[in-house]
What we know:
The protein has helices at about 1-35, 85-100, 125-130, 145, 155-160, 180-190, 195-210, 255-270, 275-280, 345-365; strands spanning about 50-55, 55-65, 65-70, 75, 80, 215, 230, 235-240, 255, 285, 290-295, 300-305, 305-315, 320-325, 330-335. It is of the alpha+beta class. The chain has a single domain (about 40-365), classed as Beta-lactamase (3-Layer(aba) Sandwich), CATH 3.40.710. It starts with a helix and ends with a helix.
Amino acid sequence: MKHLNQFNRLLILFTFFLPLTSAYSQNLAHKIDSIITTQFNDTSGPGGVFMVAKKGKPIYHKAFGKANLEWGTKLNPDAVFQLGSITKQFTAIAILMLEEEGRLKVTDPIGRYIPDYPAGDRITIHHLLTHTSGIRDFTKMQSLRDIAQKEMTPKMMVDFFKNEPVDFAPGEKFDYNNSGYVLLGYIIELVSGESYEDYIQHHIFSKAGMNQSRYASDRQIIPNRAYGYHQKEIGYVNKTTISYSIPFSSGSLMSTATDMLKWQNALNQHLLLSSAATKKVFSQYKLNNGETFTYGYGWHLRDINGIPSREHGGSIFGFKSMGVYIPSEDIYVLGLSNCDCLSPTQTTKDIAALVLASFQEQRRD
């Protein structure tokens, strides 16, 4: 009888708690909706997909707007977007995977792999990973327009910018740099003997179960593709066409919100890297003068209301992206947009701040 009474009390407590939990989730979802629709409010135009996950599982996942304006097709939560510079996360992890295999070291000078690179004896892989190399960013070169639609090999891309004057000596300052991540992709190819595309596909996407992720293409048929747009005075127009061999390992990957959560979970579960190597990825480093800067290997290391976060955004013709992870709470928030007129950056940060505060308040109650 005593055990029966305990069971009844637990049953009553569970029956009481379940509606509260459901009401809490609905209220949180409504608040997230409100943040998103402040900006993503054109139901007849391009839009975005947003996901919030807690402890590796989605608690919010919705699509807003159209995937294709010509056909009037709605975006769905599993649409495939171009990631832009979130690609750098995959490039950085690939480098650390090769280091764990003993095939390179982040302290290696790049001249060990590219002997004719100017000052290659002083610029290290670490400098490339942390945007402290001083190499000229190719996206700031006016001559970029001359090659924007050409099919370039990684070596051709490196040759395109390698003889440009440097902006500063290696390690002197942090300056976000796409050229450094193109060099990293080239080094991945030289060391692994595989193309960058194949290396990421075989060693990361396949291993993490990211079945809808890939190297970008405008020619191949990609099921559930979100088409990219610009907004002009006349209205929305199709995105500018570029060769994806140009951004290469600095910005040419595609994925879905579901696959990006698999990516985050693979990192947390050390599926790709050991805990020691993962710590290197998310450590803060110092400049030559001893000053600490807030970028690890492929992630900005920031905070939300004083709580450490790992963040990165991306932008490529027709698309913008933003991901925020809060390690202490295991909260992951991702925003993907198919118009470069709709940046999900602040929206994603605002959602992360809301969800963080919400879970903190729930614990206090």
